Amino acid sequence: MKYYVVDAFAERVFAGNPAGVCLPERPLDADTMQRIAAENNLSETAFVLRKAPGLYDLRWFTPKSEIDLCGHATLGAAYVISTFVDPGIEQMAFDTLSGRLGVRREGERLTLDFPSLPPRPVEVPPGAAEALGAGPLQAWLARDLVLLLPDEDTVAALQPDFTRLAALPGAGVIVTAPGRAGGEADFVSRCFFPKLGIPEDPVTGSAHSSLIPLWAERLGKTEMIARQLSARGGRLHCRLAGERVFIGGQAALYLEGEIRI
User: Fold this and answer.
1) Distance from first CA to last CA of the chain, Å, rounded?
2) Dihedrals phi, psi of 39, to nearest 5 degrees
3) Which residue, 215, 194, 213, 193, is CA-closest to 203?
4) Which is nearest to 144 in space by CA: 69, 95, 207, 55?
5) Nearest of 148, 157, 154, 153 to residue 123 by alpha carbon
6) How far is the C-alpha of 68 from the C-alpha of 239, rounded, in Å?
7) Which of 80, 170, 239, 258 measures 20 to 30 Å from 219, CA to CA?
Protein backbone atom coordinates (compact mmCIF):
# COMPACT_ATOMS: atom_id res chain seq x y z
CA MET A 1 0.00 0.00 0.00
CA LYS A 2 1.04 3.59 -0.50
CA TYR A 3 2.59 5.17 2.58
CA TYR A 4 3.46 8.77 3.34
CA VAL A 5 5.04 10.64 6.23
CA VAL A 6 3.78 14.19 6.58
CA ASP A 7 5.07 16.82 9.02
CA ALA A 8 1.82 18.35 10.28
CA PHE A 9 1.38 21.86 11.68
CA ALA A 10 4.65 22.74 9.98
CA GLU A 11 5.69 25.06 7.19
CA ARG A 12 8.77 22.91 6.42
CA VAL A 13 10.08 19.41 7.03
CA PHE A 14 11.73 18.58 10.36
CA ALA A 15 9.17 20.72 12.20
CA GLY A 16 5.68 20.06 13.50
CA ASN A 17 4.53 16.50 14.17
CA PRO A 18 5.32 13.65 11.75
CA ALA A 19 2.32 11.44 10.95
CA GLY A 20 2.26 8.22 9.00
CA VAL A 21 -0.54 7.98 6.43
CA CYS A 22 -1.42 4.58 4.91
CA LEU A 23 -3.74 4.16 1.93
CA PRO A 24 -4.96 0.54 1.92
CA GLU A 25 -7.07 -0.55 -1.05
CA ARG A 26 -9.30 -2.71 1.18
CA PRO A 27 -10.21 -2.75 4.88
CA LEU A 28 -7.45 -4.06 7.17
CA ASP A 29 -7.97 -5.86 10.46
CA ALA A 30 -7.05 -4.00 13.65
CA ASP A 31 -4.15 -6.33 14.46
CA THR A 32 -2.47 -5.63 11.10
CA MET A 33 -2.93 -1.87 11.49
CA GLN A 34 -1.48 -2.04 15.01
CA ARG A 35 1.55 -3.97 13.78
CA ILE A 36 2.15 -1.43 11.02
CA ALA A 37 1.88 1.46 13.49
CA ALA A 38 4.36 -0.26 15.82
CA GLU A 39 6.75 -0.82 12.89
CA ASN A 40 6.44 2.81 11.78
CA ASN A 41 7.08 3.93 15.40
CA LEU A 42 5.61 7.41 14.90
CA SER A 43 3.31 8.95 17.48
CA GLU A 44 0.36 8.13 15.18
CA THR A 45 -0.24 6.30 11.93
CA ALA A 46 -3.47 7.04 10.07
CA PHE A 47 -5.26 4.52 7.85
CA VAL A 48 -7.48 6.11 5.19
CA LEU A 49 -9.96 4.14 3.05
CA ARG A 50 -11.69 6.05 0.27
CA LYS A 51 -15.48 5.58 0.18
CA ALA A 52 -16.31 8.29 -2.36
CA PRO A 53 -14.72 11.55 -3.50
CA GLY A 54 -14.59 13.69 -0.38
CA LEU A 55 -15.63 10.89 2.03
CA TYR A 56 -13.19 8.54 3.76
CA ASP A 57 -12.93 6.11 6.65
CA LEU A 58 -10.13 7.09 9.03
CA ARG A 59 -8.53 5.26 11.97
CA TRP A 60 -5.51 6.22 14.08
CA PHE A 61 -3.00 4.01 15.89
CA THR A 62 -0.11 4.84 18.20
CA PRO A 63 2.71 2.27 18.47
CA LYS A 64 0.74 0.69 21.34
CA SER A 65 -2.98 1.17 20.75
CA GLU A 66 -5.82 2.60 18.67
CA ILE A 67 -7.04 6.05 19.73
CA ASP A 68 -10.35 7.83 19.21
CA LEU A 69 -9.15 11.28 18.14
CA CYS A 70 -5.96 12.61 16.56
CA GLY A 71 -5.50 16.03 15.04
CA HIS A 72 -2.09 16.01 13.38
CA ALA A 73 -2.62 12.65 11.64
CA THR A 74 -6.00 13.88 10.37
CA LEU A 75 -4.30 16.97 8.98
CA GLY A 76 -1.62 14.74 7.43
CA ALA A 77 -4.28 12.48 5.93
CA ALA A 78 -6.09 15.47 4.44
CA TYR A 79 -2.83 16.72 2.94
CA VAL A 80 -2.20 13.32 1.28
CA ILE A 81 -5.76 13.05 -0.02
CA SER A 82 -5.88 16.57 -1.45
CA THR A 83 -2.43 16.13 -3.03
CA PHE A 84 -2.40 12.52 -4.26
CA VAL A 85 -5.80 10.80 -3.94
CA ASP A 86 -8.34 13.44 -4.99
CA PRO A 87 -6.01 16.24 -6.14
CA GLY A 88 -7.33 19.73 -5.60
CA ILE A 89 -10.26 18.72 -3.40
CA GLU A 90 -11.05 21.42 -0.86
CA GLN A 91 -13.63 19.83 1.46
CA MET A 92 -13.12 16.39 3.03
CA ALA A 93 -15.14 14.34 5.53
CA PHE A 94 -13.80 11.47 7.64
CA ASP A 95 -15.83 8.83 9.46
CA THR A 96 -13.97 8.05 12.68
CA LEU A 97 -14.40 6.74 16.22
CA SER A 98 -15.23 10.36 17.16
CA GLY A 99 -17.94 10.66 14.51
CA ARG A 100 -17.68 12.53 11.25
CA LEU A 101 -14.86 15.07 11.14
CA GLY A 102 -14.33 17.68 8.45
CA VAL A 103 -11.22 19.23 6.94
CA ARG A 104 -11.14 22.18 4.58
CA ARG A 105 -8.13 23.09 2.45
CA GLU A 106 -7.62 26.79 1.75
CA GLY A 107 -4.39 27.26 -0.15
CA GLU A 108 -1.53 26.00 1.98
CA ARG A 109 -3.59 25.82 5.17
CA LEU A 110 -5.72 22.85 6.23
CA THR A 111 -8.38 23.45 8.88
CA LEU A 112 -9.77 20.67 11.05
CA ASP A 113 -13.43 20.77 12.17
CA PHE A 114 -13.36 18.93 15.52
CA PRO A 115 -15.70 18.59 18.49
CA SER A 116 -15.21 21.01 21.36
CA LEU A 117 -14.35 19.01 24.49
CA PRO A 118 -14.25 21.48 27.40
CA PRO A 119 -12.43 20.00 30.38
CA ARG A 120 -14.03 20.06 33.82
CA PRO A 121 -12.21 21.57 36.81
CA VAL A 122 -10.59 19.08 39.18
CA GLU A 123 -8.16 19.25 42.06
CA VAL A 124 -4.48 19.18 41.14
CA PRO A 125 -3.65 15.46 41.49
CA PRO A 126 -1.15 14.40 44.14
CA GLY A 127 2.28 13.92 42.60
CA ALA A 128 1.69 16.31 39.68
CA ALA A 129 4.31 18.83 40.85
CA GLU A 130 6.89 16.09 41.40
CA ALA A 131 6.15 14.56 37.97
CA LEU A 132 6.54 17.89 36.19
CA GLY A 133 9.21 19.54 38.29
CA ALA A 134 6.92 22.60 38.58
CA GLY A 135 3.80 23.33 40.59
CA PRO A 136 0.52 23.51 38.62
CA LEU A 137 -1.80 26.38 39.50
CA GLN A 138 -5.03 24.67 38.35
CA ALA A 139 -6.18 21.40 36.82
CA TRP A 140 -8.92 20.22 34.48
CA LEU A 141 -9.83 16.81 33.08
CA ALA A 142 -11.38 15.70 29.78
CA ARG A 143 -9.73 12.88 27.82
CA ASP A 144 -6.44 14.26 29.10
CA LEU A 145 -5.36 15.95 32.31
CA VAL A 146 -4.78 19.67 31.70
CA LEU A 147 -2.44 21.52 34.07
CA LEU A 148 -2.03 25.30 34.14
CA LEU A 149 1.49 26.65 34.71
CA PRO A 150 2.35 30.28 35.45
CA ASP A 151 4.03 31.30 32.20
CA GLU A 152 5.48 30.31 28.83
CA ASP A 153 9.04 30.02 30.13
CA THR A 154 8.01 27.47 32.76
CA VAL A 155 6.31 25.33 30.12
CA ALA A 156 9.33 25.49 27.82
CA ALA A 157 11.80 24.55 30.56
CA LEU A 158 9.99 21.44 31.86
CA GLN A 159 11.94 18.19 32.10
CA PRO A 160 9.24 15.85 33.42
CA ASP A 161 9.55 12.42 34.98
CA PHE A 162 7.62 10.28 32.49
CA THR A 163 7.18 7.35 34.87
CA ARG A 164 5.46 9.64 37.37
CA LEU A 165 3.44 11.33 34.62
CA ALA A 166 2.06 7.94 33.56
CA ALA A 167 0.57 7.52 37.06
CA LEU A 168 -1.56 10.69 36.74
CA PRO A 169 -5.22 10.62 35.59
CA GLY A 170 -6.16 10.94 31.91
CA ALA A 171 -4.88 9.42 28.70
CA GLY A 172 -2.21 12.12 28.57
CA VAL A 173 -0.97 15.18 30.43
CA ILE A 174 -1.25 18.62 28.82
CA VAL A 175 0.58 21.55 30.36
CA THR A 176 -0.42 25.02 29.25
CA ALA A 177 0.15 28.71 30.04
CA PRO A 178 -0.65 32.12 28.57
CA GLY A 179 1.65 33.27 25.81
CA ARG A 180 4.41 35.76 26.54
CA ALA A 181 3.30 39.41 26.54
CA GLY A 182 3.90 40.85 23.09
CA GLY A 183 4.55 37.40 21.64
CA GLU A 184 2.84 35.67 18.75
CA ALA A 185 0.88 33.08 20.74
CA ASP A 186 -2.20 33.64 22.87
CA PHE A 187 -1.43 30.41 24.72
CA VAL A 188 1.21 27.69 24.68
CA SER A 189 1.31 24.02 25.60
CA ARG A 190 3.25 20.79 25.73
CA CYS A 191 1.67 17.33 25.62
CA PHE A 192 2.89 14.09 27.17
CA PHE A 193 1.44 10.61 26.53
CA PRO A 194 3.71 8.06 28.24
CA LYS A 195 0.74 5.68 28.72
CA LEU A 196 0.44 5.45 24.92
CA GLY A 197 4.16 4.99 24.32
CA ILE A 198 4.68 8.67 23.39
CA PRO A 199 6.79 10.50 26.01
CA GLU A 200 6.19 13.89 24.34
CA ASP A 201 4.00 14.51 21.32
CA PRO A 202 5.50 17.29 19.16
CA VAL A 203 2.18 18.94 18.13
CA THR A 204 -1.19 17.62 19.31
CA GLY A 205 -4.26 18.78 17.41
CA SER A 206 -6.71 16.74 19.51
CA ALA A 207 -5.48 18.37 22.73
CA HIS A 208 -6.74 21.67 21.36
CA SER A 209 -10.32 20.36 21.40
CA SER A 210 -10.00 21.01 25.14
CA LEU A 211 -7.47 23.86 25.13
CA ILE A 212 -9.46 26.09 22.75
CA PRO A 213 -12.67 26.28 24.85
CA LEU A 214 -10.59 26.61 28.02
CA TRP A 215 -8.55 29.55 26.74
CA ALA A 216 -11.48 31.13 24.90
CA GLU A 217 -13.22 31.47 28.27
CA ARG A 218 -10.10 32.67 30.10
CA LEU A 219 -9.07 35.20 27.44
CA GLY A 220 -12.54 36.29 26.32
CA LYS A 221 -11.89 35.67 22.63
CA THR A 222 -12.84 32.99 20.12
CA GLU A 223 -9.92 33.27 17.66
CA MET A 224 -6.41 32.57 18.91
CA ILE A 225 -2.92 31.53 17.89
CA ALA A 226 -1.41 28.63 19.82
CA ARG A 227 2.12 27.29 19.92
CA GLN A 228 3.21 23.88 21.12
CA LEU A 229 6.67 24.23 22.65
CA SER A 230 8.18 20.83 21.86
CA ALA A 231 11.67 20.61 20.37
CA ARG A 232 10.14 20.53 16.87
CA GLY A 233 7.45 23.08 17.68
CA GLY A 234 4.24 23.94 15.87
CA ARG A 235 1.76 26.76 15.30
CA LEU A 236 -2.00 26.27 15.33
CA HIS A 237 -4.69 28.72 14.19
CA CYS A 238 -7.61 28.18 16.60
CA ARG A 239 -11.27 29.18 16.58
CA LEU A 240 -14.16 28.28 18.86
CA ALA A 241 -17.60 28.03 17.23
CA GLY A 242 -20.15 26.71 19.71
CA GLU A 243 -19.77 22.94 20.04
CA ARG A 244 -17.02 22.80 17.39
CA VAL A 245 -13.41 23.94 17.27
CA PHE A 246 -11.46 24.77 14.12
CA ILE A 247 -7.74 24.03 14.15
CA GLY A 248 -5.66 25.16 11.19
CA GLY A 249 -2.09 24.60 10.10
CA GLN A 250 0.19 23.73 7.22
CA ALA A 251 1.88 20.46 6.30
CA ALA A 252 5.08 19.38 4.58
CA LEU A 253 5.67 16.06 2.81
CA TYR A 254 8.71 14.19 4.12
CA LEU A 255 8.39 10.70 2.64
CA GLU A 256 6.48 8.83 -0.07
CA GLY A 257 6.83 5.06 -0.36
CA GLU A 258 5.18 1.65 -0.18
CA ILE A 259 4.51 -0.80 2.63
CA ARG A 260 4.73 -4.48 1.72
CA ILE A 261 2.87 -6.98 3.90
Assistant:
1) 8
2) -65, -40
3) 193
4) 207
5) 148
6) 22
7) 170
Kindly compute the dihedral angle of the four CA atoms of residues 177, 43, 162, 206, in this order, to the nearest 10 degrees. 30
Set 11, 25, 39, 44: catalytic member: 44
| Long-range contacts, stretch 30-36, CB < 8 angstroms, 24+ apart | 30/66, 32/261, 33/59, 33/61, 33/66, 34/61, 34/65, 34/66, 36/61, 36/259, 36/261
Fold of 120-242: Diaminopimelate Epimerase; Chain A, domain 1 (3.10.310)
Buried b / exposed e along 238-255 (16+ C-beta atoms within 10 A): bbbeeebbbbbbbbbbbe
- Domain 2-112+250-258: CATH superfamily, name plus number: Diaminopimelate Epimerase; Chain A, domain 1 (3.10.310.10)
DSSP annotation of 67 reads E
Confidence (pTM): 0.90
Chain-centroid distance, C-alpha 146: 14
Looking only at Cα atoms, what is the longest distance across the chain? 52
- Residue 144 DSSP label: S
Please write the tens of the pLDDT for every residue from 182-224.
899 999 999 999 998 889 999 999 999 999 999 999 999 999 9
